[in-house]
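Appendix C reproduces, verbatim, an entry submitted by the partner laboratory led by Prof. M.T., so that reviewers can inspect both the input and the predicted structure.
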Amino acid sequence: MKLLDKYLITSSVFAIFTEDFSFHYIIDLKLFYLILISNFFLISYKYKVTVNKNIIVLFSFFIAHGLFCYLVFQNPIQSLIAQVLGISISSVYFYNLIKIFKVNVLVDEYLKLSFFIAIISIPMFYLGINVFTYNRLNGILSEPAHYAAIMLPATYFFLRKREYLKLGVIVITIFLSKSSVGFIGLFLILIIPLIKIKYFLKYSILVVVIVLTGAFYLSSKWNNKITENESNTVVRRLKQTQESFKATYTGKFKNYTNLSTYAFLSNFFIAQQIFIHKPIGTGLGSYKHEYDKYYEKLSPPKYLIKLKQSKINRTDANSLFLRMIADFGFFGILMIFYFIRRSYNIFRDDKKIFQQSSFFYLFSKLLREGHYFPPEFYFFLIIFIKNTNEDITCS
């Protein structure tokens, strides 16, 4: 392999882990954008850059829908333009990267980097280097949830390939992240094989033991007194989420509601209000403007108002699912149905390990992280939506 090709592969895959790498020179510059733009020029110089017809159709819809909503709801059009540019550059870049170098080469590089980052994340955590909070691992990523989500495809792949040492290291780091997204992802990785009859007996005992152990552990801690710093983190969040669930339709929160619970449920309430009143959606990039229109219906905990955190995730809805429902309305629901149908077809074919691995990241993305173009998103999405392992750009 030529040196330039090796650089393009390694730098592009490394770029998906660089959300927390930025520096300030006149303006804030993210390493991801610098890699993407410079590599785009290199690829354009050496190879022919193309745009898939499906990408063109999708962007035509985004623009037409966004312009219509702009005229109807009068949200700033700059937000639409920014989102269209960000999504188009990221998606076209990764489409061409995968078309040129093939998915198996790029996924192999992703797996190598995932394992390496997991290895260095453990000493980083215990030495207090770049930790999100004092007791949660996030490695070189900005948040524990982001770390867990980007590691889920590698977890599934190493499990399927029976590379248990690498699997064990990554699973340990996900547990150290203490991310609910990570725990849900690991649970799905255990459960989904049971959907297939031939795997049922092989994995069911292990899953039942894990589920029963988890249930017993939660029940043993459930009645313990809740304190912010000393009580079990998972139990505390589950109990507070349960107690705060009424806020999803009232908008009124208890004063002791924790920040994570409030972030999800408050945005659930806002997205629900937008969908009820504007079922066709409000356009790509409109969420933060619509949020401001419905914010007065919320009654946030007083301590979050004091900390100026009562509008947390105003720009991204805390969840891609919620943001899509708000921005695209019924069209967003159709996109979700496509994802479900595509997932069903992928898991019917045992050979589609790369696509299956991507599912776990994308599912976690729907639950959490509502940005439309984080560094890693289109890397996994384009792998997921195409059909073959060797050349996923074939229709």
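The beta strands are 22-25, 27-30. Additional entries are available on request from the coordinating office.
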